[in-house]
């Protein structure tokens, strides 16, 4: 049997100058250059695994530095060795006796962990000849559980409860696989209403999106209340009363301010307010949730929720009504599995964060798994979609009628075109040289 | 008037091979090499400011990389420009539209922010010819408040409430200054009972410490219950029933496990259990606090509490009974001021984390300020002391009869001896070359 020993890890700083056109602009990130720390691992048999974590420009070099520091824990291990005790390997990376000090399990070092482990999962899926979602869906529940580090979450979800959830969801699994292959997973669009866009551009993008079958739209808010009222009114007018509107403040407010501001936007009937305040403020989100519940507005958060311990508390405190997992903020598939299972136990729907570079490509696998093998429900569930930068991927997402169609190529879908990587490498790539 | 423009920032990776003798070993950090990212800033008039953040070995290079990324936001600014709107400058560093993504305000980027701002505060104190604690104590309350970023904490502490606390504490201030200059601030020792120490070494160190006047002792626990019982029993026997014992698990347990384990150690009458579980688990700490209260054991945490939003919630949830601020984990003096004021409002004593490299030198300034200008109380208050590596500092801490004596030299006390820095630079310093 082949050992698939990992003999090499490379990481590159790849940036796209998206700030030039205000793509991705929000109330706290006004000039993002969508970027990735891009990881390639290689086995002694010449097989490759691709992983990445998403960033927004400056600071990507710090994540690259952190990936290099983790590299010593990966190179020399075989894929078999890793996946035969994936929980142990996860803890090796996240609880290194020296490096955990600079986290632990948060910020730069956790983003780097995600990039590395995403590459390991990609390698595993490729070695099985399956797209990642199918690898997960086909995996024995006990094996799945053995990938999760339950440290610090057993007061909310035990290993036995997790196993029980997965075993129960085996019923009807094949039916849901078939349904997904046929219909895809419902998506919503954030591409129409970035904060830096003009009203005219917003109108045009809305019209186009409606024509393409989109029914769920997210608007960025939080910089200026008058502006927000105008923009929300405009988009609600464009999409009509029956389509879904969500609003996203990207952490702009304090707790009291969030409640006042969102109350002023309630007449536009948003389904949720996303990231109303600090991503660390569990009790603040709980207070906001409580205040907005009578208005029929839920709270959504998670794209900057840095680990399972935080999600555990958001769920315990009823601080969110929509769980927005992120494929690169959490510690890869391993930690996302823990969060999907906790969300199911607490009966809160998961609506992933996506967009950026590669987040759509990655997270579609997780949400397909969630539907097929955990939640078995599409109620109040949808996955974010942003129509940028997909052309740089070897297996870009396929959207049909506002649904994510399940990926078919083996792996985790985040292999980038080598030409794109080279052209956008920072600072030496052609694109950046031209801008200097 | 001199502008004191900052024209240069350098940062170095300085490591001490403490793991060779198990100094600093605990249940989660079994082999720490005490280290710092060491920052020097220089003005156009040749004045220097020194700052650092503490790390435990591998990963220090990542923090160094982050300091370099922040450097562009500092170099070119004058000291006057910074301190005339310190809140604005704080937010410039912590909320950069691109770099905040890899935090925000947590992990590597926050540790780097601390190192940089510690150097700015050192420069400020030197330029006023005062030790930092005296700069703070003499500062007008309104000016102090203008250094704090209240974003995300106004639901717990408003600017007006903070000002009110400082104004009230003006009464009796000079008396407390005199008292501190005479008696010093009470300290406890962690040097006797690191996890890797033998019973014989522990006994000897305890005897020495008692002879030197120490009355408060901390023991590391959490790796093995039988071991803990033996060690706690031994140390309680050594120090007698009237001295104070604290225990520290360094995040080893899940919530339920923490309660069971500490209950088994209750007969040794620890004042607190420190870091029983994940530093992110506010609700977990609240559950542990509630369970241990009937046993008379409090919960202490904070050395890995990454920002004011987390401390706010720990206080709101009654999740700790002792606030352990850290001079390098939080965003320097600015963020520590916010936490001291919140702790006072919630009537919870502050007992800082120290040790490592330079943490004692730094945090003594903050706790002196807390006593003189905020809490005006010594009840249940003490500052950690660890007797390692002080010889590498130009103005090392002075301990007399188990009390921190107020520093007299201008600045923030973290200038290191240049020879120590060069010898311990990683990996090219002599100490490390010899070990290779």
UniProtKB/TrEMBL annotation, chains A, B:
Q: Which reaction does it catalyse?
A: L-fuconate = 2-dehydro-3-deoxy-L-fuconate + H2O
Name the cofactor(s): Mg(2+)
What SUPFAM superfamilies does the entry give?
Answer: Enolase C-terminal domain-like (SSF51604), Enolase N-terminal domain-like (SSF54826)
Keyword DNA-binding applies: no
- The answer, when asked if Magnesium is one of the entry's keywords, is yes
Extract the PROSITE patterns matched here: MR_MLE_2
- Report the EC code(s) recorded for this entry: 4.2.1.68
Residue ranges occupied by any Mandelate racemase/muconate lactonizing enzyme C-terminal domain in the UniProt entry = 199-295
Recorded GO molecular functions are: L-fuconate dehydratase activity; magnesium ion binding
Q: Which Pfam families match?
A: MR_MLE_C, MR_MLE_N
- Family of the protein in this entry: Belongs to the mandelate racemase/muconate lactonizing enzyme family. ENOSF1 subfamily.
The UniProt entry, under PANTHER family, shows: ENOLASE SUPERFAMILY, MANDELATE RACEMASE, MITOCHONDRIAL ENOLASE SUPERFAMILY MEMBER 1
Record protein name field: Mitochondrial enolase superfamily member 1
Q: Which organism is it from?
A: Oncorhynchus mykiss (Rainbow trout)
């Amino acid at each position: 049997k082949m050992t698939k020993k990992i003999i090499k890890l490379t990481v590159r700083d790849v940036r796209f100058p998206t700030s030039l056109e205000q793509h991705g602009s929000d109330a706290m990130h006004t000039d993002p250059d969508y970027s990735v720390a891009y990881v390639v691992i290689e086995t002694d048999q010449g097989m490759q695994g691709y992983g990445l974590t998403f960033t927004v420009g400056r600071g990507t070099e710090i994540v690259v530095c952190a990936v290099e520091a983790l590299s010593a824990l990966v190179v020399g291990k075989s894929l078999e060795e890793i996946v035969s005790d994936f929980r142990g390997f996860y803890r090796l990376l996240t609880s290194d006796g020296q490096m955990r000090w600079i986290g632990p399990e948060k910020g730069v070092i956790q983003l780097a962990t995600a990039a590395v482990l995403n590459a390991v999962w990609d390698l595993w899926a490729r070695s099985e000849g399956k797209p990642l979602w199918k690898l997960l869906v086909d995996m024995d529940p006990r094996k799945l559980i053995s990938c999760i580090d339950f440290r610090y979450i057993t007061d909310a979800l035990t290993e036995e409860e997790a196993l029980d959830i997965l075993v129960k969801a085996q019923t009807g699994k094949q039916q849901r696989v078939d349904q997904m292959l046929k219909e895809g997973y419902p998506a919503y669009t954030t591409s129409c209403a970035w904060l830096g866009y003009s009203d005219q551009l917003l109108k045009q993008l809305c019209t186009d999106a409606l024509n393409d079958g989109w029914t769920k739209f997210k608007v960025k808010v939080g910089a200026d209340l008058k502006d927000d009222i105008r923009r929300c009114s405009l988009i609600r007018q464009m999409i009509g009363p029956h389509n879904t509107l969500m609003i996203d403040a990207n952490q702009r407010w304090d707790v009291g301010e969030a409640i006042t501001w969102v109350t002023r936007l309630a007449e536009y009937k948003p389904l949720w307010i996303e990231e109303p305040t600090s991503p660390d403020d569990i009790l603040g989100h709980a207070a906001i949730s409580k205040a907005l519940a009578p208005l029929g507005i839920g709270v959504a958060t998670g794209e900057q929720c840095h680990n399972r311990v935080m999600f555990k508390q958001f769920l315990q405190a009823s601080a969110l009504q929509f769980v927005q997992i992120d494929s690169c903020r959490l510690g890869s598939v391993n930690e996302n599995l823990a969060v999907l299972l906790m969300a199911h136990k607490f009966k809160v729907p998961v609506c992933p964060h996506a967009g950026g570079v590669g987040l759509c490509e990655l997270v579609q696998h997780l949400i397909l798994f969630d539907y097929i093998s955990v939640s078995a429900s599409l109620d109040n569930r949808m996955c974010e979609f942003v129509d940028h930068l997909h052309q740089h991927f070897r297996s870009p997402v396929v959207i049909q009628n506002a649904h994510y169609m399940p990926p078919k190529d083996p792996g985790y879908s985040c292999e980038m075109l080598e030409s794109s990587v080279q052209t956008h490498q920072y600072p030496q790539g052609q694109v950046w040289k031209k801008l200097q």
